[in-house]
UniProtKB/TrEMBL annotation:
This is Galactosylgalactosylxylosylprotein 3-beta-glucuronosyltransferase. Glycans are attached at residue 267. Its EC number is 2.4.1.135. It comes from Plutella xylostella (Diamondback moth). Its cofactor is Mn(2+). Pfam families: Glyco_transf_43. The active site is at residue 248. Pathway: Protein modification; protein glycosylation.
């Protein structure tokens, strides 16, 4: 009886040792797997999709300058955290550049790279920028949407500058849009915040100080449009023929009246986007004299 008990104890002790050993061998490699490769895998996992969410088409014109890669890097790393996002980047250039191509490819985002050079004469005359680039994106988008089923077509179009600052919440908000959604924009138009004025859950006016006579005195960052409206209004596009600050009104006039705007961000009481501008960097004379063709900056 006693020998049987001690024999059993030995088995229990051995079993516990095996259990502890298994526990260690199981958890250690697993925790290493979780920590190390995750960072490297991030770009692949960012293209995550959820078929229940409307697709957000971000339309971003861009042009070559010293801080271009820095600005695009910062923006792309915000966009990596947005589900069902398709980034349409349009270069103001004769040809697509390797800098933008590399950045988009390495981002792991779902993207479309386009290019169209703004004509010189037009550029001098008009103050508006990005008109040709946004129109080129809309042309591409219409073709893309036509190739999708009605269900797949559900989406939202957002015009994004490459140097603005976007909180992730602004993307959550815009997925609620039926036609056109609006929200406040921080530090723009000479104001701390430019926004629609809401009365009983409807847009009754705007607080803008800069050109308040505009039909829609809001910034490009302060609204998004249901994608299907661009198919219902194939003529909708931006125009070179208007003075600066009127591009938003030009495009919105195709789709809605002020009363139809859908106030988002808690009835326009929250700021989820800021019209930040990147300061133009200054490179010294000596610095300019040094060229680095082998390194992309
Ligand atoms: C917005 O305001 C309207 C009217 O006051 C209210 O019914 C609605 O619940 C509000 N929405 C949000 C998200 O706070």
């Amino acid at each position: 009886m006693t020998s049987f008990l001690s024999f059993k104890k030995q088995y229990i002790a051995l079993g516990m040792l095996v259990f502890i050993a298994l526990f260690f061998f199981n958890t250690r490699p697993a925790s290493i797997q979780c920590q190390v490769p995750q960072l490297e895998e991030l770009p692949a996992s960012v293209a995550s999709t959820n078929s229940n969410l409307p697709t957000i088409y971000g339309i971003t014109p861009t042009y070559a300058r010293l801080a271009q890669k820095a600005d695009l890097t910062r923006l792309s790393q915000t966009l990596m955290l947005v589900k069902n996002f398709h980034w349409i980047v349009i270069e103001d250039a004769e040809n697509k550049t390797p800098l933008v191509a590399n950045l988009l490819r390495d981002s792991g985002l779902k993207y479309t790279q386009l290019n169209i050079k703004t004509e010189k004469e037009k550029a001098k005359k008009a103050m508006a920028s990005g008109v040709e680039q946004r129109n080129k994106a809309l042309e591409w988008l219409r073709g893309h949407l036509r190739g999708l089923s009605e269900e797949e077509r559900i989406g939202v179009v957002y015009f994004m500058d490459d140097d603005n600052t976007y909180a992730l919440k602004v993307f959550e908000e815009m997925r609620k849009i039926n036609k056109v959604g609006v929200w406040p924009v921080g530090i723009v138009g000479g104001m701390m915040v430019e926004m629609p004025i809401i009365t009983n859950g409807k847009v009754s006016g705007f607080n803008a100080l800069w050109k308040p006579f505009r039909p829609f005195p809001i910034d490009m960052a302060g609204f998004a449009v249901a994608a299907n409206l661009f198919l219902e209004h194939p003529e909708a596009k931006f125009s070179r023929k208007v003075q600066s600050g009127f591009q938003e009104s030009v495009i919105l006039n195709y789709f809605v009246k002020k009363e139809d705007l859908e106030p988002l961000a808690d009835n326009c009481t929250k700021v989820y986007v800021w019209h930040t501008r990147t300061q133009k960097p200054s490179i010294s004379k000596a610095g300019k004299a040094m060229t680095y063709n082998h390194i992309e900056v």
